[in-house]
Structures are given as C-alpha cells and as structure tokens.
Write a structure and sequence with these properties.
single chain, 608 residues, alpha/beta, seven-stranded mixed β-sheet, globular
Length: 608
C-alpha cells in the first residue's frame, strides 16, 4: 500500500473515530425542532428553539452534558396540544424526558424505545391514546416510568417486566386491561389503579403501593386517590433529586450582590430578568398594580413583553442582611420545590439596590381575598372549591415536609398565602418565611415569624419551629375556609366572646352549634357533614401539644376519608380528660363565689 493511501486511510479512520466520540448536533437539533412542531408550540412558546441557532444546548428547557449531548428535556405544564414525534428517538444521550401536565394527544411512538440512556420518562396527565409500545422494554436504564392519567389502552407489555432498574412504574387512571406482569409487583413503587386490569384477583397484590400496611383493607375509591397522590408526590420529589444530580450540567448564574461579587447560585429553569424588563412590565411599579404587601415587600401585577402575566415581588429591605438572606433562601428553595400545589418561581432580578422575584400571576388571587375582600358581583368561593383548597394545600405542605430533602417549613400558613389559579386550585405561595431544615434535626431555633392567630403556641414560647407548627397554621386556615373569618377578630370582644377564631370554634363545636359559624356567604349551600369533617381535621391540627398533631400525610388521608374517625374519637377522649383536670384544678383554687378563675378561660387556655 502506498504512503498516500496509508495517509488517506488514517484520515478516514480518525474521522470515523471522531464521529463516534462526538455528538451529532444536527440530529439533536432536528429532533428537538420536530418535537416543537409536533407539539403545536405557539409563537410565544419555545421561542428560542430556532434552527438558525444551531446549538440546542442554548435552548430553553434543554440541558446538555459537558460534551454537548442533550441529556434532559423538561416541558411540563406548558399547555401543548399536539402529539409526540418519533424523531425524538434520535436523542441517544437523553436521560430525562418530562412532558407531564399538557394536553398531548396521539400515541407513544415506538421509537421511544431507541432512547437507551433514558432514566426518567414522565408523560403523566395528558390525552395519550393507543397501546404502551413494547419497545420501552429496550430502555434498560429506565428507573421512573410515569404514564398516569391518560387514555392508554391494551395490555401492559411483558417487556417492561425485564427492566430490572425500574423503581417507579405509575400507570394508573388509563384504560388498560389484561393481567399485570408479575415482575412489576416487585418494583418498589407502583400504581395500576383506575384501569380494567386484574388487580388483586389473580394475584395477592394491591394495585397501588404506599407506605401503609399492605394487608389492610381500603375502599376502592380511597385506594385510587391515595395511590395517585402518593405516586405524584414520589415522582415530583425524585424529579427534585434528579435535578441535584444534573446540577453539574446547568449553568451558574452570578448574582451581583454588592460587595460579594464572587457569590454564586446555581439555578435550573429560572430566568434572570433585567431591571428594565420588570420596570416596563409593572408600569414603573405603579401603585395601581399592587396586588398585596407582605413582610418583605410589595407584590405587583405585571405583563412581560411576550404577553405573559406575572406577579413581581419587590423586596424592600435589601439593605438589611435579612433581606438578602431571605432572597437567596427563597430563590434556592423554590427552584427545587416543584409541585402542582406550590407556587412556581419563574425568575429573579438583582441589582446593587434591588431584589425581585417573578412568579406566575394567579388570576383568582388568594383564598383570603375570595373569603373576605371580593367586590360586588364577583363569585363567592363555593363549598366544593373550599374542599379542593383544603386538600390541595395539604398536598403541597405534605410535599414540603415529607418528600423534599432537606425538608421545607413554610412558617406562615394562612389563607392570604394560599393562591388560586384559573381553575380555583390551591397553590401554596410566599416562601419568604420558610426555613430549610436538615433531615437529621427535628426542629430549628430561630426568630419567631408569622401571623398572630396562626402561630403555634410552642413556637411563640420557645422559638422552635417544625413541621407541626405548619400543621397548626394549616388547621387555623381550615377554620378560615369554614367560617370566612380572620384568625383574630377583636370585634368579638363586644359580645364577651372569643377573640381567637380557634377558641370560638372549639366552644361552638362543644355546644354542637357549628352551623351558626359557617360562612354566611355560602347561603347554606354546603354539606354540614363535610363542614363537621373539616372542622374535626382543623381541631386535630391545632392541638396544644405538637406531638399530638397529625403529620400532613395523615391530614391528606383524613381529608380523603381514611382514619379520621379513629383520631377524632381519641381527641374527644383527651378533651374530656383535660376538662376533668381543669375542673379539679378549679375546685382547688376556688376561694369562694367570686373566684378570679373562670372555668371556660382555664379550659381554653389549656386547649391551646
């Protein structure tokens, strides 16, 4: 062979090796652009997914590794109505594909089986039809498979049973039929409820796995709801963990804090806005755009250049170290706490003299507004909506307390901090007072913050907050939902009644007069049994001892109809015992007819 031919051969060999070692940006770009087209993305969606911008690693919601391989595509809850393109199968390095919470139609292309690096596939809560492709059995690295709440039919492919790496398989609320592959029952977390599958008939298994006793009997409806809720929480939390795992692939944003130019905060899908953008969006922070005011500043309604409505929180104590700390704490927490019942952070802005946070605009404002501040002609928050608020808020707090690592304590749970989206679904907001807690600690000592009437007694006396202080505030918020009243109302002093809403409700509950305190705006359009149930949950949550209060996961189950009767009977027994103790104490201290001790006052002080 001649020298010239040897040289050509070496060049060809090097070219082939290089082609194997490096990503193929054209294929990646084409696949992602095809996905944008098939999803029917509007002109305001994925605007920088432009074929003229040849590197897809710079596109929004796309994350790459150090070799420019696309490893994550996250397009959840963006309102897409199109279908899935088979060309997505070209993304050989993709580890995470999240498309949950859209309205995607059509089937799952068999080409998804070519995504051999995929670890997480989340297509939950769409309108997908057809069968689950057996080619998904090729995804040997797949750990999380979530296809819940679609219209998928046919049988579960046997090929899924060969995926030894699976730790979560959630196929609930579809139209699947036939038998469930036995091997899938060995997956740590699974949910097959809400289908036409053979669940618990030919197998000694439940259709949904959770942390409860697998041998206990559950009503089918309760089992479905609990399974779905737990499945969602687990997937969202694991998504957060995956976020941390992938943090090495995300860019670092430099925060221009005066005097601390080297400080860095790592963000996921959070946008950094310029001061001018937000100034224009809010009409120069006009007072007519003020939505409310909290402990750290005002919140303004704004409209971005692309027409997106936002709420801009402008922190006013930026010169105070607590203001800077609050800003960083809120940014870091909200960027990793992702749940349908938690307020999502869109972005932020910092200058040497300003700290701003940008959230989605909640068109129905807050629960407090809907209870007490509605204008003539605006609809009253009806009873079914109030029940949804109670459950949605509980789910959001359950995620913060029990699924996040480190856990998050809100520290100011009240109706004013529960926002309502366009469908009147509850969204827990205002994490400015929240505190990250190391999972090895049971509480944290810090400055007492919150709103009087919502603060747990042990927090006031010791300064120690925990998940159970949030549970107390949640219980008071439930009473706000039932009564429409504030947690503290000094006008009741005129009637020699109880200033604290909690004490007032406890007295009426004891006298079996709960119907007298239900919000008059409901115009008797409510179910008194449901009112009693929510009131019972509220009183369990506001017990004096934090150890006696239920965890938020227990609250969720009680609101879904499981376990309340037993806890309520126990509570009543404790109340009777406590009342007898108070009476004995009164007799000991009773110095005559004009005793300075009042029976009700002693009893109620003990109840808090």
């Amino acid at each position: 062979m001649s020298v010239e031919m040897d040289f050509v051969f070496v060049l060809l060999l090097l070219a082939s090796v290089r082609s194997l070692a490096l990503p193929e940006p054209d294929l990646q770009e084409d696949a992602l652009f095809a996905l944008k087209i098939s999803l029917n993305a509007s002109t305001n969606q994925l605007t920088n997914w432009n074929k003229n911008q040849v590197n897809p690693c710079t596109w929004s919601n796309v994350y790459c590794d150090q070799n420019s391989n696309v490893v994550q595509v996250s397009l959840a809850f963006m309102g897409f109505t199109g279908s899935l393109t088979p060309r997505i199968g070209a993304l050989k390095s993709l580890t995470t594909l999240s498309l949950q919470g859209n309205s995607i139609t059509g089937g799952i292309p068999k080409e998804f089986g070519n995504l051999t690096s995929l670890v997480r596939l989340d297509l939950e809560n769409n309108r997908l039809t057809g069968e689950i492709p057996s080619s998904l059995g090729n995804l040997k690295k797949l750990q999380f498979l979530t296809l819940s709440q679609n219209n998928l039919n046919g049988t579960i492919p046997e090929s899924l049973a060969s995926l030894s790496s699976l730790s979560n398989v959630l196929l609930d609320s579809n139209d699947l039929s036939g038998q469930i592959p036995e091997q899938l029952f060995k997956v740590p977390k699974y949910n097959f409820t809400g289908n036409n599958l053979n669940c618990g008939v030919n197998y000694n298994h439940l259709c949904a796995s959770d942390n409860a006793d697998q041998g206990s009997s559950h009503k089918p409806k309760v089992g479905l709801i609990v399974g779905i809720v737990i499945g969602l929480v687990v997937i969202l939390c694991l998504g957060g963990l995956l976020f941390f795992w992938c943090r090495g692939y995300k860019r670092e944003v430099f925060v221009d804090v005066a005097g601390e130019v080297d400080r860095r905060i790592a963000f996921g899908q959070i946008k950094r806005f310029s001061w001018r953008e937000l100034q224009i969006a809010t009409d120069n922070f006009s007072e007519k755009n003020v939505l409310g005011q909290g402990g750290f500043g005002k919140v303004y309604k704004g409209v971005l250049a692309d027409g997106t409505k936002v709420a801009v929180k402008r922190l006013t104590d930026y010169q105070n170290p607590a203001g800077d700390a609050a800003f960083q704490r809120e940014v870091e927490m909200i960027s990793v706490a992702v749940h349908r019942n938690l307020l999502r952070l869109i972005g932020f802005c910092t200058t040497p003299t300003e700290r701003l946070l940008v959230y989605p605009f909640m068109q129905n404002l807050s629960v407090a507004y809907r209870l007490r501040e509605i204008k003539p002609g605006e609809p009253v928050l009806d009873w079914p909506s109030r029940k949804r608020v109670a459950l949605g808020t509980a789910r959001g707090l359950e995620y913060l307390h029990e699924q996040c690592n480190p856990k998050i304590i809100h520290r100011d749970v009240k109706a004013a901090n529960i926002l309502l989206d366009g469908d009147f679904e509850a969204v827990v907001g205002d994490f400015g007072l929240a505190k990250l807690v190391d999972v090895r600690k049971t509480n944290v000592t810090t400055q007492v913050r919150g709103t009087m009437g919502h603060i747990a007694p042990e927090y006031l006396s010791t300064g120690k907050s925990s998940e159970r202080t949030d549970v107390f505030g949640y219980g008071v918020m439930l009473l706000e939902l039932v009564t429409g009243q504030r947690a503290i109302d000094f006008s009741r002093l005129e009637d020699e009644d109880d200033v604290l809403l909690l004490d007032h409700v406890k007295k009426l509950q004891r006298e079996k007069k709960l119907d007298t305190i239900v919000d008059s705006n409901l115009d008797k359009n409510y179910n008194i049994e449901e009112v009693e149930m929510i009131t019972q949950v509220a009183l369990l949550c506001t017990q004096a001892s934090p150890e006696d209060r239920p965890a938020m996961s227990e609250v969720v189950r009680m609101l879904e109809g499981e376990g309340l009767a037993e806890r309520w009977e126990e509570w009543q027994h404790m109340e009777v015992t406590r009342r007898h103790d108070f009476e004995r104490l009164q007799r000991r201290l009773d110095w005559g007819e004009d005793s300075v001790y009042n029976h009700d006052a002693i009893e109620l002080s003990g109840g808090r």
